[in-house]
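Write out this protein's structure.
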Amino acid sequence: MTSKKLSKSISLQHKAKSIIPGLTQLLSKRPDMFSTDVWPGYFSKAKGAKVWDLDGSEYLDMSISGIGANILGYAVDDIDNEVIANIRNGVSSSLNCPEDVALADKLIELHPWAEEVRYTRCGGEAMAVAIRIARASTGKDKIAFSGYHGWHDWYLSANVTSESNLNDHLIPGLSPNGVPKALAGTALPFAFNDINALEELVQKHGSELGAIVMEPMRNFKAPDEYWQQVEAIAKRLDIPLIIDEISMGFRINCGGSHLALGINPDIAVFSKAFANGYAMAAIIGKSKWMDAAQVSFISSTMWTERVGPTAALATINYYQNNKVHEHLAHIGKQIKQGWQQLADKHGLKIHISGIDALCHFNLEYDNFLTLKSYFIEQMLKQGVLATNMFYCMYAHKDEHVGQYLSAVDNAFAALAIALEQPSVMAHIIPSTSGFKRLN
């Protein structure tokens, strides 16, 4: 194993800290979330399942795969060629692109319950549009929600009264600074798979609720009975059930995971894997609710550009033709089994969770964040970009799994030694968990 040279990569990270608040545009890609002054941070090229950093080092990417956006892999020719052809014909003009209509047709074909479609270019704003539609159609302000739904005011307002309200919804420590305090009490969190928690909110705020917003799942599947009860509450209150498919969509099937899970939403929201890394998002739903998009001002110049819809159409067609979800499950199962077998081999206490296509592990020790950082460092030395999460791509093949698990074997062996000899990790900076200011 030889250390990778990172002089250009680390130098640019230090420069970025001084001129870009927070260093990156996405919290989940901040280098301190992985291993400070070890994680490459920037890429010069990405193709298939590999990335190259600024110093020319090549890595097999078995980590977050564009934080779940690159479901097919990097620079997929079938997608890029469609996009490039349309770029040459003009990305935008004074007229609208016909791909808007073609994509709406495709989404409704995949989701027969849906009748209308609107677009944005990223997940957070798509959720904000869905909330606006719900409030406009019901005339009510309060939103009951479970799960993580982005950075916009409607969601972060849950932390105005207490910055811990969102701690159990994926990312702890999210600051509501800059969110109008007048929004306090308008976003009401409840625990997933706990119908009593939702019923309690309904008892207190039912007449004021404008929507129920949920992720379809994160680490585990809720029973059918639970969803039937949630749907019954939404119908009783005559408010939309909004399913946030931004993370889960196109991972266990072609389309929204709610189709496979037996959930019956009124509105569903997509982004990330939807267009294989190109900027695209969609809100689909029943006309009863979606028509409110015409009575509230929801409009943006850049929602009319052509690249996003083109990429989404090409991605969906590629996905259908190659039965991508079956391959994701095949690869993910091998990864999860490998983690368990190698942890057992080296006597490590491990907890594995998540669906096959989007899984992660925790080492059950008090210094997990230090162990995580050390694991990442050991994997990078072997030419593998890895963390404790694995977002599967269609580009991941069996041979990549073998290379990855061989590297994990060595890294887990190093972790086992480090647990017996704490001085080994004395120089390791722990990975960051959650949201915090960068100094």
